[in-house]
Amino acid sequence: MTYKSKFNLYFASTPVQLICINELRRKDCSENFKLFFFLRKNSFYANSQMYLTAELLGFKKYKIYWIPKTRFIRFFNEMLFIFNLKLSLKSIIDNQKIHFVIFDFRSTFLQSLRRYFIRSKFTLIDDGFYTYVAQQNYFKNDIYLPIKNFQSISGKIAKFLYFGGHYERLKKSPFNLFTIYADEINNKKAQMNNLNYLKEKIIIKKRKFDQNKVYFIGTGMVERNVATLEQELGLLKKLNLFWQKKGKKLYYIAKRRTSLEKLKVFQENGISTIRYDLPLELVVTEIDDIPVYFCTLGSTLQKSLYLILGNNIKFFYIDFDDFLKKSPEMQSNSYLGDVGFSAAFYAKNSPNIRVLTYEEIIDKD
After folding, report:
1. Per-residue tens of pLDDT for the chain, all 365 residues
2. Residues 342, 343, 346, 349: is their CA dihedral positive or negative?
3. Cβ neighbours for 263, distance < 8 A, ≥ 6 positions apart
4. Concatenated DSSP letters for 25-80?
5. What radius of gyration, in Å, describes the C-alpha atoms of the chain?
6. Which residues pair with residue 296 across a beta bridge?
7. What is the secondary structure of 114-173 as a DSSP string?
8. What 3-state class would DSSP assign to 96?
9. d(CA 254, CA 186)
């Protein structure tokens, strides 16, 4: 069948995913699309960031799918969504190739769309650092479903409900990637996202770079219960002193879901905090003075900001597990999972990131 044109369906749940969609839309010169937001009603701050990002990037029309709290209701809502989507696309599906742009490899629901729209093209955009993780754990082994998610009893039930008899076919069926890591992974289906739109904004506005500012990229580890507040605070206090000795000021940059209680504790302990209404990739295109130094415990920003700002900035990675193990005054137990281990591997092997060791931070000879 010869298609007259391509109709794009964009799915996003975070501002960074919107940034990726914007880059792909501009790269493809696509104006024939529908955009869906997948949001939670109790996430007011995160949702407001989505709306602001959409406005700044020029997305004026979008539909919101509110994610139900309970799995049982969620499944039926998702099946209803697919049914309504099929109905809405019925008039164009015979004349246009449908292109789905999805955001989460681990999402059973988003993966199940490949079951119901067999002839459509699918592209996966970055969901934080997980594209790199999925490449290491799945794609390089020609696996295109998150098979580890389907090993438990609940996982096996989800496998049956969402995929039926299509599981094995989908597991071996590749899809395209549009990722900032395309130049670092061996994947023929990967297309490079150079973040050209944001890069051009920096060039046009000629931003200044501040040698005396250090941004520590906040984490959600405390909120996810994989680390304690005392552990994260212990690291920040030592890092704050480390940069003070070098005549620089450290700022903790809050994430969308960083709790106000945590920020209050940091401020009470002399840690300056900043909470932006936009993702940092957009923030650096808007502020007058961009910090030269960035510290992370593993973040997509290690790559995205480097693509936007180039050699004007310097990244420092701290291995949090190693820091805790060598800190006698702190509990060393934490669980960072696949993403944490992959982030450590990535940072230690990247020429653009310097690993800041425990010994350097505490100024141990």
Report:
1. 344 458 999 999 999 999 999 999 999 888 889 999 999 999 888 899 999 999 999 999 999 999 998 988 999 999 999 999 998 888 776 656 899 999 999 999 999 999 999 989 999 999 888 999 999 999 999 999 999 999 999 999 999 999 999 999 999 999 999 999 999 999 999 999 999 999 998 876 777 899 999 999 998 888 888 889 999 999 999 999 999 999 999 999 999 888 899 999 999 999 999 999 999 999 999 998 999 999 999 889 999 999 999 999 999 999 998 898 898 877 766 656 666 777 778 888 888 899 999 999 988 65
2. negative
3. 252, 254, 273, 275
4. HHHHT--SEEEEEEE-TT-HHHHHHHHHHHHHHT----EEEEPPSSHHHHHHHHHH
5. 21
6. 317
7. HHH-TTSEEEEEP-TTHHHHHHHHTGGGT--S-GGGGSSHHHHHHHHHHHGGGHHHHHT-
8. strand
9. 33
Report whether 216 contacts 320 (CB < 8 A): no
117: amino acid identity, one letter: F
Residue 116 CB-density burial (10 A; 0-12 exposed, 13-18 middle, 19+ buried):
middle
Say if CB 304 and CB 296 are below 8 A apart. no
Strands of the 314-317 sheet, one edge to the other: 272-274, 249-253, 208-217, 289-296, 314-317, 353-355
Write out the two tokens for 175: 């899809």
d(CA 93, CA 120): 9
pTM: 0.91
Neighbours of 294 (CB within 10 A): 25
Distance CA 173, CA 167 (A): 10
Written as six digits, the tokens of 309 are: 């700002």
Output the furthest CA–CA distance in the chain (Å, rounded): 71
